[in-house]
Specification:
Helix 1 runs antiparallel to helix 2. The protein is an alpha+beta fold and 264 residues long. 15% of the residues are buried. The structure holds alpha-D-mannopyranose (MAN) and calcium ion.
């Protein structure tokens, strides 16, 4: 702030360049006219204090504003950080969800493959069962008798053992193989002498079934097998129906009825 006195001095400095006497007169006039006293040192101090106070206020206001701005920015920054963390968490959730969905999809794919394999198996089984059913229908229609997993057919004519066997084979079967007491009992219901699928033609005394298996459980009639009267009796028939043990060895060229068996 420039005091009135200083202003005057300044004006006087200009006197060197301007109309000095005129200005001096004007200055004197103005001081006298308005009767303004020269600024006292207390007044100076007062002004200084006011100005300082004003400056302090401005500084305070500026500080307040900057502080508020800082707080505001900090809050905004915090919000952004939280939002970023939220987004991060959301992203992580998405990623883990996607991972578990991928795993589920792969598991589903495996299950689907298993199911497809199962369905194929069932389809095959279904076809197999259909074929079996058709076979059952076929043998039943031809007059075969079903017993414990096999169909049986008694011939209506008599033939040697080998021809009898050939007949069975032509019907998709073979001469009967007996490998249980139940089957043995079943065979005794037919009252004629009938060929079964047992012989020792390859090695004397080594009784073999037509499927190539060796004889284990036998039902020889008492005294049999005997190659009776030194004859070569290499084929077996059911002769003694009234006995549990009904088998007899007889010459293969003899002609008897025969029984075929078709295992199902
Ligand atoms: C007949 C034939 C033989 C059998 C005897 C038993 O001769 O069947 O095979 O061994 O009877 O007496
Ligand atoms: Ca005999």
């Amino acid at each position: 702030m420039v005091s009135l006195e200083e202003e005057l001095e300044l004006s006087m400095t200009y006197e060197n360049f301007e109309d000095v006497p005129a200005r001096k007169a004007a200055s004197r006039r103005s001081v006298e006219d308005f009767n303004v006293p020269a600024a006292a040192p207390g007044m100076k101090m007062y002004r200084l204090v006011v100005v300082s106070f004003g400056l302090l206020c401005i500084l305070q206001a500026a500080l307040n504003i900057s502080l508020r701005l800082t707080l505001y920015l900090e809050a905004g920054c915090n919000n952004l950080t939280e939002e970023r963390d939220d987004l991060k968490r959301t992203l992580e959730n998405y990623v883990s969800q996607q991972n578990s969905l991928t795993e589920e999809r792969d598991e589903m794919k495996r299950i689907n493959l298993d199911l497809e394999a199962g369905r194929n198996l069932l389809t095959e089984e279904n076809h197999g069962l259909k074929r079996t059913l058709e076979e059952y229908a076929h043998y039943l229609q031809q007059g075969w008798v079903y017993f414990s997993g096999s169909f049986y057919r008694i011939s209506s004519t008599m033939k040697p053992w080998q021809d009898s066997r050939r007949d069975c084979q032509q019907r998709g079967a073979d001469l009967m193989i007996i490998n249980s007491q139940e089957e043995q009992d079943f065979s005794r219901q037919y009252k004629n002498i009938i060929w079964i699928g047992l012989m020792d033609r390859d090695t004397e005394g080594e009784w073999t079934w037509v499927d190539g298996t060796q004889l284990t459980t036998s039902f020889w009639h008492s005294g049999e097998p005997n190659n009776y009267d030194k004859r070569n009796e290499d084929c077996v028939n059911i002769n003694h129906h009234d006995h549990t043990n009904s088998w007899n060895d007889a010459p293969c060229e003899n002609e008897y009825f025969w029984i075929c068996e078709k295992k199902m």
